[in-house]
Design brief:
Largest sheet: none
Length: 162
């Protein structure tokens, strides 16, 4: 059975002595940021867990990580940690990211009331579609007479005979 290496211990060692790993310091920083974002997106993360992450990372680092969140990720986090906030579903992305930092910093979520649900926009009433069956050509009645013009004589056949 192979032994598994403690990844956190490796990351600590790399970050503690970056001069020993000059070629991978940037990659280690990207990996650490990706791990923090993955933890933020974890479904099991609670508000107390978010606040613990904030305490461990500090305000500046946590804010930089929150700035890397996409709009959808930030909206999901605000909806999970502050579902009753009236601006949660309509706010711009920068407000959502700031709200995550504020909640992590110790602010309480909006209290009271029901969860705000934004009504789904209804589809605009479409103009009635004109169907071929309803057109005058399909409603015409046969009067017993042929109203088509007589066939034209083909000029190419007339030239060949002359």
């Amino acid at each position: 059975m192979p032994l598994d290496v403690d990844g956190l211990a490796l990351l600590k060692a790399i970050m503690a002595a970056p001069d020993a790993f000059p070629d991978i310091v940037g990659e280690a920083a990207r990996a650490a940021r990706a791990l923090v974002i993955r933890q933020l997106k974890a479904k099991t993360l609670t508000l107390s867990g978010l606040r613990r992450m904030y305490e461990c990372l500090g305000h500046e680092v946590f804010t930089l990580v929150a700035d890397d969140l996409t709009e959808a990720e930030a909206r999901t986090l605000v909806a999970r940690f502050d579902p009753r906030h009236p601006d949660g579903m309509t706010a711009p992305p920068h407000w959502l990211r700031r709200q995550i930092v504020v909640l992590a910093g110790g602010a309480e979520p909006c209290a009271g009331g029901k969860t705000v649900r934004t009504p789904r926009p209804s589809a605009p009433a479409a103009a009635p579609v004109v169907r071929a069956i309803g057109s005058p050509a399909f409603t015409a009645r046969w009067d017993g007479q042929d109203h088509d013009p007589p066939p034209r004589k083909d000029k190419s056949k007339a030239k060949g005979k002359a």
